[in-house]
C-alpha cells in the first residue's frame, strides 16, 4: 500500500527513516538476545527472571544512548527532516532493542503460540493503520512512519504481556547473570551487526550514492527476494533449542537435514520467482516498480547461500560458537562495502544486488567450511576415544 501510494522516491525516503533505527538496534542490543537464549538453555531455569531484568536495563540504557545517536545521524544526513520524525526515530530505539531481546526470550521459552502472537501484533496494527490512512487519503511518508512507530510500541507491549508468568518469579537484577549474558552476547554482537549490514547496507549506500528513486525500486526487489528467507530464518530459529541440547552427533545430523531441506525448497522458490518475478512485482507494488525486476533476478542467485548462512549462524550461536558466525559476517560485510562502492555508481540497483550476492556467497562458504572442520575434528576425537576404549577392553 505504501509503495503504490507513495511511489518509488517517497517509498525510498520512508525506507531510509526505518532503516536508521533498525540498523542501530542490531548494535544497541549488544547481542544480549543471543546471551539470553544461550544461558536460558545452557544454564539452570533460575536464571530466567534475572535475564529479563538484564533485558530491561540494556533496553533502557543502550536504547537511550543510541536514540541520541540516531537523532544526531538523521540531523546530519538529512537536516530537512521534520523535528517530530527525528524525535520518533530516537524514541523508537529503546522499543526496538527491547523487542529484539524479548522476541528471543519468547523463543527460548518454547512457547511458540505466544511467540507467534508477539510477531503478529505489530504488523497487524501497522496494516490496519496504513489501510485506514489509505482509505481517508492521508497516507504520506510522515503518517506511514507514525504507523511504524506505533506498531513497534504495540509489539513491545505484547511482548511484555506474553512474557508474564513464564519465569515464575519477579525479574531481579543479578550482576553475575547480566555480565555473563552480555559478555556472551558481545561475542556475537559484531556478527549481528555485520550480518545485518550485509543485508541492509546495500540499501543505505544505494540511497546515498544514487538517490531515493533507485532505493525505492531496490526496496521492492529486496522485499520480494527476501520472502524466500522466511523458511530458513524460522526453521533455524525453531531448531536452535534442539541444536543446543543435542549430542554432537545428533547436532550434525539435525543441522545437515535442516540445511538440505532449506536449500532445496529455497532453490525451488528462487527458480519460480525468477520466472514470474515481473508479474509478482507488478501485482504487489504496481507497474512503476517493474524496473526492479533485473535487480530481483540478480538477488535470487544469492538466496540459497544466504538461506544456508542463516541456518548455520543460528546453529553456531546455539552451541556456543558465536565467534565463527561473527567472523563470517564481518568478511561478508567487507565484500558488501567494496562491492557497493565499486558497482553502485555504474550499475545502480543491479550493482547493489550483485555486490550482495557475492557477500552472501562469502558468508555461506566461510561458515560451511567451519561447520565441516568443526565436526570433522569432533568425529576424529570420538573415533580416537572409541579406539582407546576398545584397546583397554
What is the residue-averaged pLDDT?
Answer: 80
Number of domains: 2
How many whole angstroms does the radius of gyration measure?
A: 22 Å
Number of helices: 14
What general outline do the C-alpha atoms trace? globular
- Kindly estimate the percentage of residues that lie in beta strands according to DSSP: under 5%
How far apart are the termini?
72 Å
Helix fraction, binned, reads: over 70%
Strand count: 0
Order of helices and strands: HHHHHHHHHHHHHH
Low-pLDDT stretches are: 380-389
Helix/strand class: mainly alpha
How is the main sheet built?
A: none
Give the topology.
Elements: H1 2-28, H2 32-42, H3 47-77, H4 83-109, H5 112-135, H6 141-163, H7 175-210, H8 212-225, H9 230-245, H10 248-285, H11 293-300, H12 303-318, H13 322-347, H14 349-392
Helix pairs in contact: 1-3, 1-4, 1-6, 1-7, 1-8, 2-3, 2-4, 2-7, 3-4, 3-7, 4-5, 4-6, 5-6, 7-8, 7-13, 7-14, 8-10, 8-11, 9-10, 9-12, 10-11, 10-12, 11-14, 12-13, 12-14, 13-14
Would you give an account of this structure?
With 393 residues, the chain is mainly α. The chain folds into two domains: 1-173, no CATH class; 188-385, no CATH class. Helices cover 87% and strands 0% of the residues. The protein is built from 14 helices and no strands. It has helices at residues 2-28, 32-42, 47-77, 83-109, 112-135, 141-163, 175-210, 212-225, 230-245, 248-285, 293-300, 303-318, 322-347, 349-392. Helix 2 runs parallel beside helix 4 and helix 2 (32-42) runs antiparallel to helix 7 (175-210). It is globular and about 50 Å long. The N and C termini lie far apart (72 Å). Mean pLDDT is 80; it is low at 380-389.
Amino acid at each position: 500500500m505504501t509503495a503504490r501510494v507513495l511511489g518509488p522516491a517517497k517509498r525510498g525516503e520512508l525506507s531510509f527513516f526505518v532503516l536508521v533505527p533498525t540498523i542501530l538496534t542490531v548494535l544497541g542490543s549488544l547481542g544480549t538476545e543471543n546471551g539470553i537464549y544461550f544461558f536460558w538453555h545452557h544454564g539452570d531455569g533460575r536464571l530466567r527472571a534475572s535475564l529479563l531484568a538484564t533485558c530491561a536495563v540494556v533496553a533502557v540504557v543502550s536504547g537511550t544512548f543510541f536514540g541520541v545517536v540516531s537523532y544526531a545521524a538523521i540531523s546530519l544526513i538529512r537536516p530537512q527532516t521534520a523535528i517530530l520524525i527525528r524525535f520518533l526515530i530516537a524514541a523508537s530505539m529503546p522499543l526496538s532493542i527491547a523487542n529484539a531481546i524479548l522476541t528471543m526470550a519468547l523463543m527460548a521459552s518454547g512457547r511458540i503460540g505466544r511467540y507467534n502472537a508477539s510477531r503478529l501484533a505489530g504488523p497487524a496494527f501497522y496494516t490496519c493503520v496504513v489501510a485506514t490512512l489509505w482509505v481517508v487519503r492521508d497516507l504520506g511518508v510522515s503518517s506511514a512512519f507514525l504507523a511504524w512507530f506505533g506498531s513497534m510500541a504495540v509489539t513491545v507491549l505484547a511482548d511484555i504481556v506474553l512474557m508474564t508468568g513464564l519465569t515464575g518469579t519477579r525479574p531481579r537484577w543479578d550482576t553475575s547473570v547480566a555480565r555473563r549474558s552480555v559478555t556472551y552476547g558481545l561475542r556475537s554482537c559484531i556478527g549481528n551487526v555485520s550480518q545485518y549490514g550485509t543485508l541492509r547496507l546495500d540499501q543505505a549506500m544505494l540511497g546515498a550514492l544514487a538517490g531515493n528513486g533507485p532505493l525505492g525500486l531496490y526496496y521492492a526487489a529486496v522485499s520480494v527476494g527476501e520472502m524466500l528467507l522466511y523458511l530458513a530464518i524460522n526453521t533455524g530459529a525453531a531448531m536452535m533449542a534442539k541444536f543446543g541440547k543435542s549430542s554432537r552427533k545428533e547436532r550434525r545430523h539435525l543441522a545437515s537435514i535442516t540445511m538440505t531441506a532449506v536449500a532445496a525448497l529455497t532453490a525451488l522458490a528462487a527458480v519460480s520467482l525468477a520466472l514470474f518475478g515481473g508479474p509478482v512485482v507488478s501485482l504487489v507494488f504496481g507497474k512503476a516498480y517493474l524496473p526492479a525486476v533485473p535487480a530481483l533476478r540478480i538477488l535470487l542467485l544469492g538466496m540459497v547461500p544466504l538461506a544456508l548462512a542463516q541456518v548455520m549462524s543460528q546453529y553456531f550461536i546455539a552451541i556456543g560458537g558465536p565467534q565463527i558466525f561473527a567472523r563470517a559476517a564481518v568478511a561478508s560485510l567487507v565484500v558488501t562495502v567494496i562491492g557497493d562502492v565499486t558497482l553502485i555508481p555504474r550499475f545502480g540497483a543491479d550493482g547493489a544486488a550483485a555486490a550482495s550476492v557475492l557477500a552472501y556467497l562469502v558468508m555461506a562458504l566461510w561458515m560451511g567450511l567451519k561447520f565441516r572442520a568443526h565436526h570433522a575434528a569432533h568425529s576424529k576425537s570420538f573415533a580416537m576415544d572409541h579406539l582407546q576404549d576398545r584397546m583397554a577392553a
